[in-house]
């Protein structure tokens, strides 16, 4: 355990869980490749929200048979 490399870094984790309200530009995931970007989300290493809303996850099967987890944001309804 030289240098403490056996423990994961604290900043590389899921920042927002399912059902949580997020703001525009808020970081959802940092440093984890298990979650892919979905609707109203952008980024590769650091995944962030494009709209204010609620976080939800979906799972889809790829043509090669692998199951991927996508992180999405459902936008809030604007009051008119």
3D structure, described in words:
- The model has no long low-confidence stretch (mean pLDDT 87).
- The chain contains no helices and seven strands.
- The protein has one domain (12-75): RNA polymerase II/Efflux pump adaptor protein, barrel-sandwich hybrid domain (OB fold (Dihydrolipoamide Acetyltransferase, E2P), Beta Barrel).
- The protein is flat.
- A hairpin with a 3-residue loop joins β4 and β5 (46-49).
- It has a four-stranded mixed sheet with strand order 1-6-7-3, with no helix packed on it.
- It is mostly beta strands.
Outline of the structure:
With 80 residues, the chain is an all-beta fold. The protein is built from no helices and seven strands.
Topology:
Layout: E1 21-22, E2 27-30, E3 35-37, E4 41-42, E5 46-49, E6 53-61, E7 67-75
Parallel strand pairs: 3-7
Antiparallel strand pairs: 1-6, 2-5, 4-5, 6-7
Shape: flat
Give me the CATH superfamily. RNA polymerase II/Efflux pump adaptor protein, barrel-sandwich hybrid domain
Structural class, by secondary structure, is mainly beta
Number of domain units: 1
Q: Under the CATH scheme, which class?
A: Mainly Beta
Major sheet: arrangement of strands: 1-6-7-3
Q: Estimate the strand proportion.
A: 35-45%
Number-wise, the strands total: 7
CATH topology: OB fold (Dihydrolipoamide Acetyltransferase, E2P)
Helix-strand pattern:
EEEEEEE
What's the rounded overall pLDDT mean?
Answer: 87
CATH architecture: Beta Barrel
Distance between the termini: 58 Å
Q: Helical percent range? A: under 10%
